[in-house]
Amino acid sequence: MTTATLEPRAGRRCQSPLNSLHAAHYFSPDLGRELGALGITHPRAVNLAARAAALGPVGAGAVTAAFYNYKHEVVARHVPAVWSLAAPAEILAARLRAVDAMLRRLLGEEALGSTEMAEAARLALRAAEAGGRGARPLYSAHADLPVPDEPHLAYWHAATLLREHRGDGHLAVLMSAGLDGLEAMVTHTATGRGMTPTWVSNSRGWSPDDWSAAADRLRARGILDGNGELTERGVALREDIEQETDRLDEAPYVHLGAEGVARLTVLGTAFARAALAAGAFPADLIGKG
Asked: What is the mean pLDDT of residues 225-245?
């Protein structure tokens, strides 16, 4: 099978709703409740522990490197201290319990037990098995975890693998484009499709001064204009970044094939829309300001 069997951006369109369902757990009260029971209560510590636990009890440097867009000094306030509160295996088990509760609440028991969910899990796992491990720390770490037995959890696990596979490749492209982690988020927000500066600052640890300094650097490079909007050069840069990310992320979708990708896109979109309608994300999460 060759990439010619897939339409342009087919993999991106397929991965997007899967990523949405994965990301919902970071905003779920279930995650805070489960990790809080382990003694992890600070919102940033919850976020860092939930995503980094698959890497094992690593230090702050490894987490900053793998996440790319978090401020290192903020990561270091919680890592590796968080591992003294709960071992990574305990955190992973708590995360899965939180995901189970979240999906039951957002999608309902009927959807979780449906043939469509079982089909989506099979397709997503099939795609995820073709991901490359080289230079992909978060995908590779999650690929070492066992696949849950229940279809809705297996689907979420596969969505996580596909999200991290694209994300790991995306970071390589951002580095090649000369964007550091904060600059990448400033340009993404300027597209109107990223998190607002308030949400980015709260979750990643950047101050308003940090954000302004990054915007100044981007204006000096001709990527942002005086109003903080993307210039023509900036728009082209963001599209080049996404296209190159598509290229690095194509293996899972080539492996699944055009028919499977199309079907998984339909199924994933339906589940993501249902979760969104049920309030999976804050209303003010996405936007320019």
From this structure: 98
Instruction: Give the pTM.
Output: 0.97
Distance of CA 15 to the CA centre of its chain: 10
Give counts: helices (H), strands (E), the chain. Answer: 17, 0
- Are 223 and 231 in contact, with CB atoms under 8 Å apart? yes
- Is residue 54 within 8 Å of residue 138, measured between CB atoms? yes
Run of H or E residues at 163: helix 151-176
Helix axes 208-220, 197-204, angle to 10 degrees: 120
Tell me if 1 sits within 8 A of 252, measured CB to CB.
Answer: no
Helix (H) or strand (E) holding 44: helix 43-52
- Tokens encoding 89: 């295996």
Under 8 Å between Cβ of 46 and 32? yes
C-alpha dist (Å) from residue 224 to 7, 33, 73, 207, 240? 31, 40, 27, 19, 16
CA distance 243 to 93: 35
Helices 232-248 & 151-176, crossing angle to 10 degrees? Answer: 130
Q: Which residue has the tokens 């440097």?
A: 61
pLDDT, tens digit (0-9, with 9 covering 90-100), for 240-257: 999 999 999 999 999 999
Instruction: Give the model confidence (pLDDT) of 123-177 as tens digits.
Output: 999 999 999 999 999 999 999 999 999 999 999 999 999 999 999 999 999 999 9
Stretch 1-10: mean pLDDT? 72
32 is written with which tokens?
A: 């805070």
Yes or no: say if 26 and 275 are a contact pair by the CB < 8 Å rule.
no
Strands (E), 112-266: none
Amino acid at 246: D
Q: Terminus-to-terminus CA distance in the chain, angstroms?
A: 44
SS3 205: coil
